[in-house]
Amino acid sequence: MGTVVIGAPEFDSFHLLDRLQRELTRRGHRVDTLCFDAATAGFWQLQGLSARQLQPAAADAMRAPLAEFAELQATARGLRRGSAARRRCVERTQTLLARRLPACVRWFEAERPDLVLLPGARGAASQLLHFVARELGVRALWLGPGLLPHTLQHDESGRDGDAGITRRVAGDYRDAPLQRTLLSSCLAHLLGCAEPAALSRRELRRPPWRTRAAGAWRAARQDGLPAAAHAWNGWRAAWPAPAPTEPDFELPRAPFAAVLLQDPDDPRVRLDAPDAPDASQLVAAASQATAAIDRDIRLAVVLPPRGLHHRQLAALAADPAVRLLPHAAAIDAAATALATFTINHPLAITAMLTATPVLHCGRALYGLGGVTHRGPSAGFLDVLGPALAADRDTLRERLLTVLLGQDHLWCSGTHPDHNGLVGLANSIEARLDSRAPRGARPGHRTGPPWPLAAPLEP
Fold first, then answer.
1. Tens of pLDDT along 362-396?
2. How far apart (Å, rounded) are the C-alpha atoms in residues 215 and 227?
3. pTM of the entire structure?
4. Of 85, 60, 56, nearest to 73 (Cα)?
């Protein structure tokens, strides 16, 4: 059987990884967790799971691109280029990575894992693990939230804008399968707000406050205040989030275009759209583009999860052509709009499932020339007309079939069910080139958990 190491996990993925570890262990595989900080390793161990902390050693950068990883970390934290805070972050991160790298190499050489699972953020720690695994001939698999609720993206190159799918071109889908029933099921799953039949959670043990205080002090000295806050309060993300309340909203009755806004610190925005417009600029560009088509077209502006600054909110609310909607309205707005404008909001895929044009500014898993229209927001004016007139349904459906049927796992990152967990374990075993002890993998149903009666064959 194979050896799987979970590299640099985060607290909010604990339930999924706990359940995954049980499933892989039941199949005969060995699973270990490699952490870069004491807080995460201690929490995993407190729950009775195997976890090891990678202890820094004498600095040796070897030939790893540590400066590149450090710059990525600074970008992920939203530090402005050329600022003193960014320079300090890059220098501190690069020094810390140089101390971690030799220990990481020694650990890989001693343990010889078959696969490194990377479910954490696209930061320096995960990039370092991916680099070491690749250099030593170990396969890596990135996991992250999918485009649809309760799905996971999985890719061997990276997450979101780093994933291999973003480098595909239209010709790569020439012989791709086309399953319209799968796409119809995905749309029904979205519009019906279907929830999986989640597996039970482990009863969590709260870390003692003295342990958290000592860890926060060490983290502050080593990596600054963000790391200290993570060591003190990060474990709370492992607890189940409260059920969201669905606010009431009303879509415009007249024809409208949707604008899906995102939080400025969204990793997809910071890492995949560094020159993205702010909320006001994006709405203005969408308004100008729609007005050139028909001045009666309204804008349904879906607010980001944490809302907007009160000045931006007041300016948008004063525009009679704009209807402000809560974040929960993203699916309904994108499904019924004439066109959808966004930076790279994941739920823009809803518009693609309803054959609605998508105009976006940043890299996205669903981005493909000929299907979506990517470019600066200033170019929306020239692109919207041709996008509304274009007819590339076959290419769009082939892209969506591959993206949602192969590049996504129908397993919830927060509420995994049995079928989804089996699919995730099967995907890992396929990369291990090994099977369960009985010689066959458990059956997995690809596609949304509802509607269950829909056959997914073409």
1. 999 999 998 999 999 999 999 999 999 887 889 99
2. 9
3. 0.92
4. 85
